[in-house]
Design brief:
alpha+beta; 6 helices; Alpha-Beta Plaits; 2 domains; flat; 228 residues
């Protein structure tokens, strides 16, 4: 194995060990056992709000454990991919190993970012409000572009999306929209998007093809339980 590849794998291992330490795999397993015990209690659904809270936390915890275990297994298998590629003398197999290393780095770094989201509500689902600002029809179009971008991002990651309200503009785009992105840490991830977003472009709605500056406001709120 090339020394640079070996060093990169060692670096990935160090990062993943840090992630595993922050997550506390053993504590996560203990919490899953506790939640599974609660979920198996027939009386749990006597209080539906509490039951939904328990099952939601259980689902999120199980997904996080599977994700961490999956990354560890992939990283442990990575040196074997390189060994097999070298034994076979296959450029294609070596390219596959390189691609897996790049993909693994992306996935480990994404999980590392989540461990940095330690705010009180960072682990919550996100409620997103988008409103068109100054810029007329271009601003309404820009607001709709932002909405599509966030929803596609969520769908790409397999996150649930529920659109609660959309107010369409007369010519194109939207005046406002409200939707929820339902997955662990989506509030912490999307909260950095909060604020005024500006778009400068040649307006497709201007017959003279002039440059137009448009604005849209993005508000991101954590979804909290009524008992929080």
């Amino acid at each position: 194995m090339h020394p640079d590849v070996s060093a990169d794998i060692d670096e990935l291992d160090t990062t993943l060990r840090t992630v595993e330490s922050v997550i506390d795999i053993e504590e996560l397993r203990r919490r899953i056992d506790e939640l599974e015990h609660q979920a198996a209690d027939p009386s749990l659904w006597d209080n539906q709000e509490h039951a939904q809270s328990v099952t939601s936390e259980l689902s999120h915890a199980q997904a996080e454990l599977r994700r961490a275990q999956g990354l560890r297994q992939r990283l442990d298998d990575l040196p074997l991919l390189y060994e097999l590629a070298e034994e076979e003398g296959s450029a294609e197999a070596l390219a596959d190993a390189d691609a897996e290393r790049v993909s693994l780095r992306t996935d480990i770094e994404a999980m590392e970012v989540k461990t940095m989201l330690s705010g009180e509500y960072d682990a919550r689902d996100a409620l997103v409000n988008i409103r068109s600002g100054a810029g007329g029809v271009d601003a309404a179009d820009w607001a709709e572009m932002l909405m599509r971008m966030y929803i596609r991002w969520a769908e790409k990651h397999g996150y649930g999306v529920e659109v609660y309200d959309t107010s369409y503009a007369e010519e194109a785009g939207i005046k406002s929209a409200t939707f929820a992105v339902k997955a662990p840490y989506t509030y912490g991830t999307l909260s950095v998007e909060m604020g005024t977003h500006r778009l400068v472009r040649i307006s497709p709605f201007d017959n003279q093809g002039r440059r137009q500056t448009s604005f849209a406001e993005v508000e991101v709120l954590p979804v909290v339980e009524t008992t929080d």
